[in-house]
Amino acid sequence: MADNKKNIGNPDRYLISFKEKYEVDYAVNQLQKQVPNTTKQEAKEALIAAAKKIDPSRGREKIMAAARKDLRD
Predict the structure, then answer these.
(1) Higher pLDDT, residue 3 or 42
(2) How far is it, in rounded angstroms, from Cα 66 to Cα 61?
(3) Confidence band, pLDDT 50/70/90 cuts, at residue 4
(4) Alpha carbon separation from 3 to 11, 12, 16, 23 (Å, rounded)
């Protein structure tokens, strides 16, 4: 399904759509690169936990930073 071009606001790249598998997979792969020795499952769990703590509309970088922090602790 294509994006609705009539919806305007924050750019799509600023957000993570947890309904789209490829977007979640991309974020998980980025976490694995940023935090070595992390399994795909650990990265996905950290990403989902971070998204529950932080409103997803606050942006990809805030969620990724929280997930990285959780993985490093």
Answers:
(1) 42
(2) 9
(3) low
(4) 11, 9, 14, 14
Q: Are 35 and 67 in contact (CB under 8 A)?
A: no
Cα angle 7-9-13, degrees, rounded to a multiple of 5: 100
Read off the pLDDT of residues 16-66 as tens digits, 9 standing for 90 and up: 888 889 999 999 999 999 999 999 999 999 999 999 999 878 889 999 999
Among 15, 62, 72, 17, residue whose Cα is nearest residue 42:
72
Distance CA 4, CA 46 (A): 30
Single-letter amino acid, residue 54: I
The amino acid that residue 15 corresponds to is: L
Crossing angle, helix 21-34 and helix 60-72, to 10 degrees?
A: 50
What is the SS3 assignment for 66?
helix
